[in-house]
Amino acid sequence: MTTFSQKLANPSPPSLKPRHECGVCGIFNHADSSRLAYFGLYALQHRGQESAGIVTSSGERVLIHKDMGLVSEVFSEETLTSLEGHISIGHVRYSTTGASNIINTQPLMITHKGITLAVAHNGNLVNSIALRNRLEEEGSIFQTTMDSEVVLHLLARAANGSFEEALTSAFREIKGAFSMLMMTKDTMVAIRDPNGFRPLCLGKINNGGYIVASETCALDLVEAQYLRDVAPGELLICRGDELKSIYPWEKQKTSFCIFENVYFARPDSDIFGINVYETRKRMGQILAQECPMEGDFVMPFPDSGNYAAIGYSQESGIPLEFGVIRNHYVGRTFIQPTQSMRDFNVRVKLNPVRSFLEGKRVIIIEDSIIRGTTGKSRVQSLRNAGAAEVHMMVSCPPTRHPCYYGIDFPSREELVAYRNEVDQIAQYLGLDSLYYLSLEGMVRATGMTVDDFCLACFNADYPVEPDLSFHKNALDKSG
Length: 479
Ligand code: SF4
Fold this sequence. Notes:
Blueprint: E1 2-3, E2 23-28, H1 33-43, E3 51-57, E4 62-68, H2 71-74, H3 77-82, E5 87-93, E6 108-112, E7 115-125, H4 128-137, H5 148-157, H6 163-172, E8 176-183, E9 187-192, E10 201-204, E11 210-213, H7 216-221, E12 225-229, E13 235-239, E14 242-246, E15 256-257, H8 258-264, E16 270-271, E17 274-275, H9 276-290, E18 297-300, H10 306-316, E19 324-326, H11 344-347, E20 350-352, H12 354-357, E21 361-366, H13 373-384, E22 389-394, H14 416-419, H15 422-429, E23 433-436, H16 439-446, E24 453-454, H17 456-459, H18 468-471
Parallel strand pairs: 1-4, 15-24, 18-21, 21-22, 22-23
Antiparallel strand pairs: 2-5, 2-11, 3-4, 3-5, 6-7, 7-8, 8-9, 9-13, 10-11, 10-12, 13-14, 16-17, 19-20
Helix pairs in contact: 4-5, 5-6, 8-9, 9-10, 9-16
């Protein structure tokens, strides 16, 4: 079965925050693998909301179902029942809207010389254009505009030796950020780039099978036991009863994406060996030490900043309150009012508690400021509700540089902190004051060191050289 309906999901509203570009979940050796992969993807929905897909294998037949939409919209009881097999890999993706993106949903699957290969990728390859140009000159015909397809073509080219040799040879050519799952009829492979930009963890399912997923929250939902992270630079091959690791690259300095800890990952996940909830709370505590402020209460704009706000409140002794209430039932699109209504798009999601805010000195805790446009309207809505003073504390440093490793950061020019100093940003947002956590403070909250992380969107120190000459024409990022 190959189901691939050509419908377009409702377009998402413009990006308010940096967005993930994908989550992956693979199940090996479980009779109900597609259902478990579905649950894993369900837990990883925050990493991509525009499309979802699962490829499954029974050892004889490889089946795929993917479409635009949320995991719960793409799969039904019927489709999951039809995806029979003991191996599955699944993918959730964020992509820009547009008809062409139905082509770019994942997992990607090809059949070459009778071998079926599927891939699901989280991250971004920095040398994909150069590789694609070379492969096209050598005769490869691409089905999509995704960088992940380059991997499939490289593997198909290297298929003369053993599967392990083909994997080693193909992956040595690839540069960038990739936490990836691959599948053949009888094998699942988990691959993490040598810098380890994106997380990837391995767990054991209670029947003896295995799960590999972007975050540990996916393991929790299927009651799998966390075993370990797939190591940076590891290719983990699951075949028969065996797990085999190979390391095709020379050992490199790790470059974990610190933004996973600041904002992207779910707070109930452990990322890079540390719990996200506790890390964000510590960021708030250190922020309170670095930037003491007088105020009547501390508040987040739910849910950004929730955990840093708890930390700031506990450290400073200033009470934590919810000055705005979130409507949890706002869909991805909603019908707009026919006449102009002040702050409508802000209030439909977050409504200020007017009687509570009246005359108060408010300290907002935010996890990040990217473009600043959302923050500006939110601050204005607090002023309109009668707040006397509005201060903002951000639990990371100013985000001044784009990400080339799989996160949808706007271009440099769109980043409010690239073109403005902190006092100018405060003025733009309509704040009485604005403070950011220091880079040292942010790293200290993780309990690790600056050498463990990629910090490029804060300090422009890019661990893997992005190919900027190609970047303007870059392929669609896979996820
Ligand atoms: S540039 Fe920023 S968002 Fe991108 S990988 Fe590095 S820390 Fe993460």
